[in-house]
Structures are given as structure tokens and as C-alpha cells.
Amino acid sequence: MVNDLPVKFLEIIARALWLILPAYIANASPVLVGWGVPIDGGKNFFDGERVLGDGKTFQGFLIGLSLGSLTGIFQIRLWADPRVQNILQTQVWNWKVPVLLALGALLGDMVASFIKRRYGVQRGTPILVVDQLDFVLGAFFLVSIVWIPEWFTVVTWLVITPWIHLGTNMAAYKMNFKSKPY
What we know:
With 182 residues, this protein is mostly helical. The protein has helices at 5-28, 30-33, 58-79, 82-88, 96-118, 130-143, 151-174. The protein contains seven helices and no strands. α5 crosses α6 (130-143). The model has no long low-confidence stretch (mean pLDDT 89). Catalyzes the formation of CDP-2,3-bis-(O-geranylgeranyl)-sn-glycerol (CDP-archaeol) from 2,3-bis-(O-geranylgeranyl)-sn-glycerol 1-phosphate (DGGGP) and CTP. This reaction is the third ether-bond-formation step in the biosynthesis of archaeal membrane lipids. One of its GO terms (biological process) is glycerophospholipid biosynthetic process. InterPro entries: CarS (IPR032690), CarS_archaea (IPR002726).
């Protein structure tokens, strides 16, 4: 029984990553576009600062929503395979779950950008924890309309996401997709 603990722990992590994958893809995809029309239209808020900034574009939003949703649709197709069901031991979603995960991730990131602008934090300036978890929290809150993940899945997301976020940002920086490694 005790020897099963590391295996169970790895299973929980793998399952949690599988379930949040549409949000991860949605959050990472906008850098692939690298340009676009700002969602805030270049407008300032009442405080004189940009509403969101140049980093949040319609093109980035659409690519993130599309790729995140398509990832989830592909996952649903994979779930039809009994071998995948046996490995993941989780329920099959309908199309709403990946779409809401992707949309929630993008909206969570936009909310964080809005808050950062209110505090005068410039685009690209990191805020520890906020920048790593904004999209996961947005995804969780929005998807909770139709599906509530188990508590240990959410805790796993909150613990591993900052590390994954750091690693993927470093990789994107090395591949010249990002101008800063964070």
C-alpha cells in the first residue's frame, strides 16, 4: 500500500494536467500571433492607464480560444478509446467544458492585466503568483458553471502551474516567442 503512494501521486498529477490542458493551451497560444488589434482599442480607463494594454489582442484571444477549445475537443475524441479511459479514470466531458476552460483562462488573464494596469504595473512586468495562476483561476471559475473538478485536482493545478508556467516561459523566451524569460 505504501509503495503505491508515488504511483498514485503521479496519477493525480497526470490526470490534473490532462484536465487543465485546454486552459494551458489557450493561455500559451496568443504569443504565437505576436501582433494584433488591442481588445481595449487603445483606450485608457478612468485612472488614465490603459484598460488592458497592447498585450491583449483580438487575434491572440481568438487563437487562444480556438486552440484551447480544439485541444479539448481532441481530448474528448481520445476518451472514446477504452485504454485512455482506463489510464485517466475520469469522466468524459461534453464540448462545453473545454470551451469554458479555454475562455476562462483567457478572461482570467485579462482580469489580471486589468488589475495590474490599475496598480500602474507595466506590460511584461511580472507579479509573482498573479501571473502564474490568473488563467487557472479564471478557467476554474468559468468551467464551474458546468463541471466542478475534485478539490485535489484544483490543489494540484495551483501547486504545479507556477513551475510549468516558469518552464514554458523560459522555453518561449529561448525560441524568441517572448521578449522576457518570465
